[in-house]
Amino acid sequence: MRLSARFVEWMMGLPDGFVVDVPDLPRTAAFRILGNGVVPQQAAEALRLLLTDSVGEVA
Q1: Residues near 25 by beta carbon (within 8 Å), at least 6 away in sequence
Q2: How many C-beta atoms surround the C-beta of residue 5 within 10 A?
Q3: Over the range 21-39, which residues count as b (16 or more CB within 10 Å of their CB) and which as e?
């Protein structure tokens, strides 16, 4: 059984096909992109925490 890039895309919370439906993108390149990507929900939480710390409240 092989890991599906579409499953990794889903686990990261990305829209369906955001990476895997790029034309002519090999499977290995899709995994490299997904592996080096940022999970949007984690990035949003990090920014929220940074803003909370610097301003004292959520913007």
Answers
A1: 19, 33
A2: 18
A3: eeeeeeeeebeebbeeeee
Domain boundaries, the chain: 5-55
Tell me the two tokens of residue 8.
């990794």
In tens, the pLDDT along 12-51 reads 999 999 999 999 999 999 999 999 988 989 999 999 888 8
Query: Which residues have C-beta within 8 Å of that of residue 33, sequence separation ≥ 6?
Result: 19, 25
Task: pLDDT band for 57, please (50, 70, 90 cuts).
Answer: low
